Structures are given as C-alpha cells and as structure tokens.
Task: structure prediction
Amino acid sequence: MTTLALEYFRSAPRFIGARTLGSKAPGLVAGPFAPLRLSSLKDPQPPNGRSGWARVKPLLSGICGSDLTTLAGRSSFYFSPLVSTPFVPGHEVVGELLDGCEDLAAGTRVVLSSVLACAARGEDPVCPNCAAGDVGRCDRVTVGHLKPGLQTGYCTQTGGGWGKMLIAHRSQLHAIPEGMTDRTAVLIEPFACAIHAALRAGIGVDDDVVIVGAGTVGILTLIAVRSFSTPASVTVAAKHEKQRAAARLAGADEVVRPEHAVKAVRRRSSAVKLTPERGQDFLLGGADVAIECVGSRRGLDLALRSVRAGGRVVVSGIPAGGADLTPLWFRELELVGAYTSGTETMPDASRIPTFELAIRAAADLPILEQLVGATYPLERWRDAIDHAMSAGKLGTFKVAFAPQT
Ligand SMILES: [Zn+2]
Result:
C-alpha cells in the first residue's frame, strides 16, 4: 500500500540551490529547485512491527516557520544528524486514528506531540530527561528502533503531517474534546510550545514583558503569557499592521513597530536609551523579560537590547545566528532557550504535560481558530508554501495543509 505525501528529499546541489535562491525570494523556495515533491510513498510501518503504534489520518497540518527554514536551506547544519532523509514534513497535526491504540479507539480525533523521544524509540531505561517528563529534552532522538529524527516530520520512518497517513506512538497522542474544531486543534502543538516558552520566561507579577514578533508564534506566546502569568505589562513589537491588530486583540498593553520598541520600553521603565555608532539603540534599564518569537538576528538583538541588567531573554524562534551578545555580557542577562514542550511545573508544584494545559486552555480561546488563515490540498503545495512564506506581509497567520482534500 502507498500513501500520497509531500517528501523532502534534500540533495546537496538542490540544497545549495535553495540556500542561494531561497534566502530572499519566497517564490523560489516553492519553485523548480524546491527540495520537496509530491510522491506516492510506501506506507509507513511501526518499527519491527511493535505495538503501541497507530496509523493517523491527518485532517489539518500546519506549516511551521521551522519547515520554511528547512525548505529555504537556511537551517543550521547542527540539525543534520538529528534528522533522517527523505522525510515527510509536518509536525503540527490534528488527525483521526485509523487503528485503536491502547486505550484510544479507532476514529478518535487526536493531536500529535511530535517529539520522537525515548518512549517512541523503545529505549529502556529512558533518558533522565524523559524520566522527568521533559520529552523535548530527550537525549535519545537519534537511537533506538527508529531512525534519527527529533520529531515526527523529520524522521524517514514515521511519515509526517504533510501526507495522507502517518504513524505515531501512543506516547505522542492526545485525544481532543469533541467540541474542538480542527482549526483550533491544529494550533495545539504550536500553542503548547508557546505555553512552554511563556513558562520558561518565569514571569513575575510586577514584570514588564516584551514580545518580539507577532506572527503565529508571537501571538500564541502573547496568549500564553496572558493565560499563564500576570505581568505588569506586555509590549509587542510587530512588523506588519495585521500582526499589530491581532496583538491588540490578544491582549497586548502596547503594540509598536520593531523600530519603535526600544523607545516604548524606555517610556514604560524610565530607562536610559543609548544610540551606538552602528546598530540598534539599547537601554540601560528596561523590561524584565523579552521573548524572541521571530528567529531573526534583528529580533534577538532587539530582545537583548530591551531588557534591564539581570533580565531574561527567551529564545523561542529558531535563532538565525549573528546576534550581538555584548548586552548578554555587559548586562549579565539570562539567555533561556524554549524548544517544543514537555511537562510544566505549576505554582502548586504539580507537574502537568504542556499538551494538557494547551488543550484545556484552548476551550476558552475562540481567537485560536481565527489564526488559521488558509488551508490547501497537498496538490497545491507550491501555492501553500508561497503563501506561508509571505504570510506576514499578506496578513495571514497559520497556513495549513488539509491532506484529505
Ligand atoms: Zn529520552
């Protein structure tokens, strides 16, 4: 049996081509040099016929910034041993179980916690991070009875959300309430990441917070900050007007263009603003916490330059590199990474999987499904990728595939 899917088949010349051509021109990422093709692939099979796996029929699958970075050949070579090619991308998935899986009946609608950690890989004993519930920190994402792949969507064996079928391990599956729409559910994975980032930020009640970026990650992070902490203020810096409008709607106290962000934080915190001979202005004084949600050098520079001495910068977007770390040193900042999700420590010291927090919170957040701006069948993948590449400019947030259409 075969499954129709979009397959990422990076080969060196095409990769270099994408790297050269794709960096500035969105149209070219989905053009003739794209390292992606629509193929009829052999059905993904559970490793060695093991139990605990089920086939999932993706209903909606998001296109994530990290997918676009990969397609454009801009991701760091650091990732190369963490993936196995060719693979079917797609890790933001709502789908339907085609098989019963332990306690979950066939037909159950599920969302996918995409990390392929110890449990999925049959590692026994599991690594110390998995033992603590921090599956995003799993040390075994390249070993066990699965090929390397930090997540579903980067592993050659499992299939991915950008196909008509994938396989997932019970440890990855979360049933969703009947009343939750597919459009809300497809955002549960990125929303869980946003909640994880918001909690990694350790925001105190009197803290002034800056969020850099208001694409899907920035808006979800703002919603998570509002839902899971009570800061004194949240300032959002966003490039595009529709992003600024969405940030206002999602509860930002102040929304500014990136070039005005340092000034806005200075007003709020009575900091001193300085202008270097080159590069962005910076503050002595400033916000308590900044969360970078763009993944650009300028974004990280802005975050580092807006926080007070001893403040915290959370890196939520995949860092593009090249940021000036002088403020990290001079202001004795804390630089905190936030990758995917896992288990969170609540104020009463209980530990709850981030996905559970996301699914519960999403029930009261009608704004989520409004963030899904467009869906495409797999056949129109070039249009979908082009749309996602230009989403900010076009005023779209999440672009997703509807693989069964
Ligand atoms: Zn592990």
Remarks:
- The mean pLDDT is 94.
